[in-house]
């Protein structure tokens, strides 16, 4: 990316405050560039959706603007235009826990403009102690009460509201891997870029919150176009409790979702292929069905500079993955350590591991040569859980600029014991204001 674009990010920030100290409007920008490389790895065969077994280098960049205005007491409106470019490794295929959260399922060589978010938020104070709200992208600085109800409506990402985690949720600043930054079985409604139209409500009291939402799904699985009639719809609910453990804050969240759309059962596709003598396909056997799942999400500070996290989830493995990725069961855990102990208080070191699994129906489908959203080696004679180790170091150079070094070891990519392991090296540059 040229120096002019980076300079534009640094110069675009600004805000104005009212007499009570609350921001009346704000403008923020960010640039993130990621380069990932993997060397050759063992692969006796491959399929249409396999990770390329030859050495490969891919890069992605995105330049974003966040513009928000306070409309009235508690009311905000935000837009988030973005310039995107680049591809994930193997065009974002070949690993269920894909190694870059900055890589979309759609890639282009030339930069293109999108509008990921355009939404309205209303916060209704219910009383309790006043709390400071830090200024930032998608959030105006000010205060709010400890007890409140928050409505969000428009275009945004479901994971802007649900499945958040202090230590693992943002590929622009912490971990890269899809199944580390989000719960792998959480098949949340989204277009191929990860955004959708929806409405969410969050009721927060002193130590707990309950939130729920309804979101538009793609017209067809992994599609670019959303079904704006909302006939393909996802319902999400989450309970959160906040606590103190030996004086250190933590939170535990339980999430559930139900997707209602035209989707296939893996066994139907396998049965049809057996009758016709072909390879199983999902499109011919899609019917209107529901698919549900749950996920547990823990974050816990152990010391002012050290925190740990854990996610575990499972979904209905009899039906195809619709929006996210082919993960039916997953457990991930890790830690984040700030650099005060070695004289770099603004740096962060992270370490995480994840184990992803497929249901028996999904295994039979992929073993017969079926293809999914992200995976499909043409065969799966020797299934094994996909295991991923990730570590990163985020180096804060200035208030605006950070560099990140990332390493991932993917064992049995796409659940295939015959292929891999794969070492993936990453470099991230992040500029924000």
Helix residue percentage: under 10%
The CATH architecture assignment turns out to be: Beta Barrel
Number of helices: 4
CATH evolutionary superfamily? Carbohydrate-selective porin OprB
Proportion of residues in extended strands: over 45%
The H/E string reads HEEEEEEHEEEEHEEEEHEEE
Shape: globular
End-to-end CA span: 17 Å
CATH topology: Porin
The CATH class label is Mainly Beta
Gyration radius, in Å: 22 Å
Which structural class is indicated by helix and strand composition? mainly beta
What does this structure look like?
With 433 residues, the protein is mainly beta. It has one domain: Porin. The protein is built from 4 helices and 17 strands. The protein has a 16-stranded antiparallel beta barrel. A hairpin with an 8-residue loop joins strand 5 (108-133) and strand 6. The longest helix has 11 residues, at 266-276. The two termini are 17 Å apart. The mean pLDDT is 94.
